[in-house]
Amino acid sequence: MSWAKRNLEREGAIIHVNAYGLEKLDFKRGPLRKAIRREARAVAKAARQLVARTAVSRPGEYPGKDTGALQKSITAKPSKSGMSAAIFPDRNLLGISPSDDGYYPAILYYGVRVGAHRRRDHQKQHDNGADWRIAPRSNYVLDAAIAREMQIRDAITEAMAEGLKHIE
Description:
Blueprint: H1 3-10, E1 24-27, H2 29-50, H3 69-73, E2 74-78, E3 85-89, H4 91-94, H5 104-110, E4 112-113, E5 132-134, H6 140-147, H7 149-163, E6 164-167
Antiparallel strand pairs: 1-6, 2-3, 4-5
């Protein structure tokens, strides 16, 4: 499971709709799917703007832009059904193959300790109190989504109202 998917599952949201007293409920998914795609693109754009600063970033700040590869790789991918979307730095757009060791966005999110290496038996090793080689940076995708939370909620509510239709 990729870093982005694990992160999105941690910060998930559940929408549940009950309809009582209706004989038949016809729901057009098109308007809702369109709104989800549109809002996912807007969150990806806001996340790209958060990492657009061309300065060296300090721990806890958003990553700074050097080559722009991270900024260009932030993408919104709708699910197969179109009822959800994931916003993440795409590994393919970064030019990283699955066989490569380091995944740069994960390194930025989790950080790297000085002298960090995995034990032979792959068990968790104790914290040796070493300083950070690369200290963790802020989660720019999550912060962009939180900043647009009200616009997302309004767009989804409007799309659901447009897609719901009562047929007797």
